[in-house]
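Cross-posting from the modeling subforum.

Setting up a comparison between two proteins and wanted a second pair of eyes on the formatting. Protein 1 (sequence, then structure tokens):
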Amino acid sequence: MSKHNKPRQAIALNYDGQQAPTLSAKGDDELAEAILAIAREYEVPIYENAELVRLLARLELGDSIPEELYRCIAEIIAFAWHLKGKCPAGFNSGPPDSPLDS
């Protein structure tokens, strides 16, 4: 019996910072491995969550993620940006100004 009962799946999302992320790639087994290899090659952070992949794999390529998943995906994107040292325009990652500093 194989140690992998279910096929390995992977999805890729495209996020332009303006619109909801869209599904840009999806695949099982060899295609999933190819998606992951490309992500590694371009140093795209990889987040592993089989349940989330199963949900998003139901979408067609180019579809926006469902509104119900906005918060979940936003947290993943924020973490990926943090790993790369990026932050949204206008975002101040430092401590808030203290009124005592004036």
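Protein 2 (same layout):
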Amino acid sequence: METMRDRFAPVVSRLLDEDPRVAVVLAEIGRDGFTEAQRRHPDRVVNVGIREQLLVGAGAGLALTGLRPVLHTFASFLVERPFEQVKLDLGHQDVGAVLVSAAASFDWPAGGYTHMAPGDVALLDTLDGWTVHVPGHPDEAEALLRHAVAAGDDKVYVRLSVRSNRRSNPVDGAGFRTVREGRSGVVVAVGPVLDDVLDAVAGLDVTVLYATTVRPFDAGALRRATESAGTDVVLVEPYLAGTSTPAANDALADVPHRVLGLGVGRRELRRYGNVADHVAAHGLDARSLRERIGRFVGERERAGAGAACP
């Protein structure tokens, strides 16, 4: 099955042909996918080698000349290792770029902890002005890549994954999408966790919102959903658990509410395993999610039933 990353090089290669502002900066990872594009556009496809700080610095330099740089490598080498350059070369200099990651939370377990970055979105949250896309299907990845490159000179992070939902959903690069309505709580499913969430909540009377753009956080969609479904909110994110909990709390600050943040735990898993092993170990498989979500949204119902007893 085609992955999001399989779609990356062909899509960006076409963007290089279509838009003379687009440039690509690589740090060895993914270079083979741009061989033909580099032949056609040798001045706009740059491979800096295994120098991730230079990757970001070079991209910022291209942005200062008026180009729209697309930077790509594994998330741990794109966000964590060169974070100072992301903060200063892009943020402080007020120039934009499109950062496109792969591997992220645990997509390549055999690479070990050096190739895992479950805290990438949380780390970018310490900076101002970033848009963050988390597609859940290769078609969504293509649409969001195109949206990111076309987003003027904004700072955009696109988080690609080997995990994918069974089918794509329409994405607009902005708000959350309602995929299921209920009356006993709201579950926000981010990117590739949607299928497991829908399997988990089968039979539960909850609303499900699908999020592929998580920053800016769609506070309006969450508030509207809680008006009919109640203010018990579960966030299921494919990265560090609780990353979006502050944003959900801010969205509902003026009403009594509860938020449960589910995602990748902080404890390091020291056995490689495979992706499915890591999903299960962090409680993000459908069976574990059903238990955790069901217990959370059922607490208020049980409390209400108890209060009604004489």
